[in-house]
Amino acid sequence: MKTNLLTVWAKRAVPALALAGLTLTACEKENDKPIYRAPYEKELRFNDSNADSIDMPIVQKFARDTACKHIYLTVKDDNNFTTLDAETIRLIRDDLQSKIAISNKISGRGDFFFEKGVATVADSIWFVQNGWTIRQMANHR
Fold first, then answer.
1. Which domain holds residue 28?
2. Do both 105 and 130 map to the same domain?
3. Residue 25 shares a structural domain with residue 92
4. Quick one: what percent of the chain has pLDDT higher than 90?
5. Residue 126: how many CB atoms within 10 A of its CB?
């Protein structure tokens, strides 16, 4: 009985190829595992001259990052919000509020210095509820 070379090759090659396919699949799945990254907190700092400088895409990037456990929108120590009027304070609140709404892991940190009576009660309460403190300075106008 004559042996067909194709049959002999098929009997040996097919199991070897199948085994190789399983090995490659296992390697690919192992590479799909997420790389462990240590948890961290991110601080995005601003002051009176760049209060709107924290870009929304940057906040969204850190909010989506599973390793990032908390994001602080932090008022720099060199802030001087005492020259702002109530409308400008309201605009700052609106900007910060839109960023905090992105994720529950975002909050404020630091001290706002406003002239006494300029910030509305509602704005002051919102800032405090979201992690900032309000320091009132005596009117200098």
1. 1-33
2. yes
3. no
4. 53
5. 19
